[in-house]
């Protein structure tokens, strides 16, 4: 004889044979089905939560400077541009927001640049909590880490490196800012702009409405900001690899591609900027030779990821505008603080094209072959990026009364989270500003989400279809 019993929420079956003792045998419980969100969706919701918190804080009366009108749209836009480390603005950050509001913006930039999952993981580590497999996978996705890398060690090194660069930049900027501001103001400005530069946000609070134009001839400040932006755009994994291996040839293929292609972009951008703007009196035409060189280097770095500028983008020549659009679209490296298609993807396709032109059977670089599936994913990402930008440009062109070049520049700047502008951002309609908020958000998470989605849908089959060639030559 047997009957069921449920004690303390556990299922038992009780057997009572004749002339024997009662024996209780525990049966395994059937686990309940739970709906688990994909990692990239959790990261998306995490950034939405950060933007919501920032919006609430920036909507408080203490966040506004005296006499400034309160606006929910301004709070939403500023929170989004800060969390997404974009830098576009519809108000003057230095005069519209109070000191408390600027501190909130700085913290949003720091947390947004570091990433939602990285920040959550760091808090768990500081509290001595265990990090589960799911949290580890989410953080790997957020940082774009490779399998086998020690997550805890990487996170701690990321924090150490971030603090070191930001504190070092703050000290150097403070010394330079003493020539322009009172000590207390110089300290706060140095801290804010150091965080903004390293996180590739490009947000300034100088209050002149012209980014960092007041330092156009202060080469020390420009070099500090450019170097911080450059280091932030490399990515933590690349920097760690460079530090651990004294010789460049011993680094990973990913590091070699990022460093070499980034250097190529900086040199090409610098040379073209000098040649195209050399005699332009509205930009660098009246600069000294040294100032022209520093300005060209500064804008080649900032135009790709940072967003700081010493000359109005609207005053540059058309060729320079198109150069900035190209640099913004390429962006920084994977797992870095910048946006764009990512240097890794464009560099992979660039070196693959060189291999094809050389007649190599398989694409390769630096003595290593590229994985065919990575080439396909990079190509998909590049095509998707430009298609989305084209569609968004058509949308804003239909909504706003600005030239196609101005709107194209704005879309690429927002989608690549650069923050450079030709001056039309504050002039957009309310609907246009909401569209730009959406563009900044998907630009911060879009590439990561697309790659994660492609990785989660890998299909491995035991069969293959017949190969058939199509005409690709003219």
Please provide a written account of the structure.
The protein has 474 residues and is mainly alpha-helical. The protein has two domains: 1-30, no CATH class; 39-455, no CATH class. 59% of the residues lie in helices and 4% in strands. It is built from 17 helices and five strands. The protein has helices spanning 39-58, 72-83, 93-96, 99-114, 116-126, 133-143, 151-177, 183-198, 219-234, 236-244, 253-277, 289-306, 318-330, 343-358, 372-399, 404-415, 430-456; strands at 2-7, 10-15, 23-26, 364-365, 368-369. The strands form two sheets. A three-stranded antiparallel β-sheet has the order 1-2-3, with no helix packed on it. A two-stranded antiparallel ribbon has the order 4-5. Strand 1 and strand 2 form a beta hairpin. The chain starts with a strand and ends in an 18-residue tail after the last helix. The relative contact order is 0.10. The mean pLDDT is 84.
TL;DR of this structure?
This protein has 474 residues and is mainly alpha-helical. It contains 17 helices and 5 strands.
